[in-house]
Amino acid sequence: MRLIKRIATYLFLSVAAFISIFPFIWMVISMTNKSVDVTRGRLLPGTHFIENITTLFETQNIGTALTNSFIVAIITTILTLLIGSLAGYGFEIYRTKRKDVVFSILILSMMIPFAAIMIPLYRFFGQVSSVAPAFGIDTLAAVIMPTVITAFFIFFFRQNTKLFARDLVEAGRMDGLSELGIFFKIYVPTMKTTYAAAAIIAFMNSWNNYLWPLVVLQSPRNQTIPLLISNLGSGYSPDFGVIMTAIVIATLPTALVFFLMQKHFVAGMMGSVKG
Amino acid sequence: MKKTSLFLLLFGLLFFMAACSGEENAAGNEEENDTNASSDGEIIAWAWDQHFNIAALNVALEHYEDENFNLEIIENAQDDIVQRLNTGLSSGTMKGMPNIVLIEDQRAQSFLQSYPDAFYPIDDYFSTDDFADYKIAPTSYDGKQYGLPFDTGVTGLFYRTDLIEEAGYTHDDLVDITWGEFTEIAKDVTDKTGVAMISLDPNDLGILRVMMQTVGSWYTNPEGEITIANNDALREALEHYKTLLDNDSVKIVSDWSTFLASFNNGEVASVPSGNWIAPSISAEDSQNGLWKLAPIPRLEAAGAVNASNLGGSSWYVLNIDGKEAAAEFLGKTFGSNVDFYQDLVEEVGAIGTYKPASEGDAYTFENEYFNGQQIIYEFSQWMEDIPEVDYGLNTYGIEDILAAEVQNYLNGKSLDDVLADTQTQAENQFK
């Protein structure tokens, strides 16, 4: 009886796992097929892999796009973690009633969709361009800046800070550490799992970000990966084999980041739920 | 500690790179106030599809003799161009905007009317008389010509000779027919061969527009009023649409890729669509020589012609520095060069709307894939007959409303109610 139950459980889990991973498998298979075969839904590996890869590298600047995406994603992740955790730490450790009000307002800002602030933001960066072109429209800096301060990460870090033993702060003060010293030397090392979870989310968000880079980046030399993939699908007769190849290449970094930090990610998310 | 400083160093380097990427193109920017597009005499063009529109621009460049002219072509998906233009133009800053941009004809009026000052009139750079009449209305506004007409979306009925013959029909049976006759042939073909006649995506009502334009009708009239409730052409088109579905003559597809697959897999006997679908049809090697082309069917109404349009776009010049050079380039190539149009057909397969071009040799090329038919020539002849239509501002918006109502119609709602309700909803949304 127990054995049957066990088999049923595994069977169910295997089917569920297969269903969730199937699109990815199909994508990898399609990478080796001709466009016509992809639209037909062919499920067997083909012989067009080299051709698809060559076409992709010949027609698109995928190297540039990858580099840009990496620069943007890495800087965004680091700044997001730094700012989000400093703010979250501050709201929780130096908590007062007034700060709670500020925090609530901050949380409200999560309700505003990005599309609503996009046009004023574009106008703003248009003006920045006249003063400091290095940070204006069509620069990676303009992609990064509006995305590094998010209410979500401040909220995320604040919730996790509730788990942080406050005594450690007191202990640090006794030992003569400055407030920033406490943050960097005690808080940061003990909250590793939270940082890992936040890093994965921030990296993925930034890597997949589409709308804002789309409007603010115009030159091909500043193109990021999602923009490149969007271009690939824009033709009247898109080459789906090449598109699949590009998508697989674009997916790998996020998958890699996730698998490297998976252990911490689960722990970090659990923490935020408990808090 | 070592780790920290190494990390800081790397991070600093990265940020420097991010800032530098802006520095390059911003270098010549300082002396200009409202554009960076042409800061170094370079003209920037946005277009979609490397193998079609961008290829066409490259052919045009080869035919343009001006050593000082520097064109940078930037590939953008069509939806991306719409998004970028809307954001850029409505923010009021012209920064980051291109000099030349490709806009689909059905969207053009919404840009021209919303941002009239953002575009540069190019009447002086070419003669509108040289172009197919139906292209002029969507590309002009308030008596000024803003767009230089580019490709035609002239439609045709691509069909599978083997399946049509199996059902007992010949090429002549498909020439100059009405959509009513087409639905009967479709029923026969499906009954006798078991293959659907056409494939349709329920979210894409392009076929209704194709039908309506054969009598010069649209969702709106030239005054901009929504004309759905009393639109006889739309009424007839919807009736044919339902008949085709009721007779099981239609294979339903869900998106563009399944649409392409439907004919590549031999699941449909015909494709009524724009000329630009031809390369997608001939991508399937195994069907070589099995396809032919007939004129698009017409509606019953008086004055209907066997010619219509689906898609097609035109070039626009933005009102920023470099506009004269950009307009000059377009005028000397797309606007007046017959040789260029010959190369355009041979190298890109794009059919322009420049009337004098259809005399050339490239147009009479016999396409083996389509049974040796001169499909380019046929298309260019039909192109001149396409009825002129004012596409108005909200073609796609109205169509979203209509698409939902069409489903109700197919489920049994009366046609009168469907049209009246669509009219009301559209008026509420777009007035």
Automatic annotation (TrEMBL), chain A:
Record SUPFAM superfamilies: MetI-like
Secretion signal span: none
GO cellular component, one term: plasma membrane
Major location category of this protein: membrane
Pfam families attached to this UniProt entry: BPD_transp_1 (PF00528)
UniProt cross-references to InterPro entries, sorted A to Z: MetI-like, MetI-like_sf
Origin superkingdom: Bacteria
Transmembrane segments: 7-29, 70-89, 101-122, 134-157, 182-204, 240-261
Coiled coil spans: none
Keywords: Cell membrane, Membrane, Transmembrane, Transmembrane helix, Transport
Gene Ontology terms describing biological process: transmembrane transport
UniProt membrane topology term: Multi-pass membrane protein
Cellular localisation: Cell membrane
Domain ABC transmembrane type-1: 66-261
Protein's name in the database: Lactose/L-arabinose transport system permease protein
UniProtKB/TrEMBL annotation, chain B:
Signal peptide region: 1-21
Superkingdom as given in the UniProt entry: Bacteria
Keyword Chaperone included in the entry's annotation: no
Gene source species: Gracilibacillus halotolerans
Protein name as annotated: Lactose/L-arabinose transport system substrate-binding protein
Keywords of the record: Signal
InterPro entries membership: Bact_solute-bd_prot1, SBP
SUPFAM superfamilies per the UniProt record, alphabetical: Periplasmic binding protein-like II (SSF53850)
